[in-house]
Automatic annotation (TrEMBL):
The species this protein was found in: Glycine soja
PANTHER family membership: NON-HAEM DIOXYGENASE N-TERMINAL DOMAIN-CONTAINING PROTEIN
InterPro entries listed in its UniProt record: IPNS-like_sf (IPR027443)
Name the UniProt record assigns to this protein: Uncharacterized protein
């Protein structure tokens, strides 16, 4: 089964990370996607230059139908909290320097189309 979010090259369900945890090798599967926009852009030059951020999401609707809704809901929650934090960062920075309305961190994050979320699944180690 190949499931891809965001990038068709190496970000698939078959891609493995193998960090060492507690002296034992753990296998991890990673899922990447944009939780805010399914298609961040259709501009071919941007997709070619930044494929991991600009390619559209591909959801496993048949194999795992609940993933899309859960991923987007959690991603939106994290995004909204990030915007609230950015607002307060802007308020703090504006006490020391002038920030134009569209130049603050909150505005930059709000305008961005390149959000990325990552879900990890850690396989249990096999006791030998």
């Amino acid at each position: 089964m190949n499931i891809v979010f965001g990038m068709k090259s190496n970000l698939t369900l078959d891609a493995w990370d193998k960090p060492m945890l507690e002296g034992q090798e753990k296998k991890i599967r990673s899922f990447y996607g944009n939780p805010i926009l399914d298609t961040p852009t259709t501009e071919a030059s941007l997709i070619q230059r930044y494929p991991s951020y600009c390619r559209p999401n591909i959801w496993p609707r048949n194999a795992l139908p609940e993933l899309e809704v859960a991923f987007k809901a959690l991603g939106k929650l994290i995004f909204d909290i990030g915007l609230m934090l950015a607002y307060h960062c802007d308020q703090y920075v504006s006490k020391g320097m002038k920030i134009h309305k569209d130049e603050g961190l909150e505005s930059i994050l709000h305008r961005s189309r390149c959000h990325k979320g990552r879900l990890l699944y850690y396989f249990p180690s096999q006791q030998g």
